[in-house]
Each structure stands twice: as C-alpha cells, then as structure tokens.
Specification:
Helix 1 packs parallel to helix 2. By secondary structure, the chain is α/β, with parallel strands linked by helices.
Length: 71
C-alpha cells in the first residue's frame, strides 16, 4: 500500500504499524519537510517490525516513484 500526503499523523502511523506487523509492504509519500514526515520514533519502531515480520517500509518524496509498483 502507498499512502500519499501528510504522513505525520495518527492514521498514517496506524497504517504503518499494521502493514509492517502483518507482513505487508507500506510506502509513505510526503513532501520532503519535517512538518509532513513521520516521526523518527515511529519509523524506527516500524523498521523493527519489518525485520520480525518480513515486511517493508519506505518513506518517499517523489509521487511517481511511490506510485510505481514493482513486482
């Protein structure tokens, strides 16, 4: 799943946690500004989940790259 927009909010955090805990692949696409990016603590927490549950998390800033699905 890819989420586009402001990624510094509780909805994005819940999606990040859910996808990484359930073995899914999650991408956040937001402006390259601290104001819109997920908090480092949440990113670090979810990156730990990716190791445990074989999932992935990417934080991107280019909408075209974020919308590209690689199979």
């Amino acid at each position: 799943m890819t989420y586009f927009g402001d990624c510094e909010n509780n909805v994005t955090y819940d999606l990040m946690r859910a996808f990484t805990k359930l073995g899914g692949n999650f991408r956040c696409c937001c402006p390259n500004s601290e104001e819109f990016m997920p908090k480092k603590e949440v990113i670090n927490e979810c990156m730990e989940f990716t190791k445990i549950y074989n999932s992935s998390l990417k934080i991107l800033h280019d909408p075209k790259e974020a919308a590209t699905v690689k199979i």
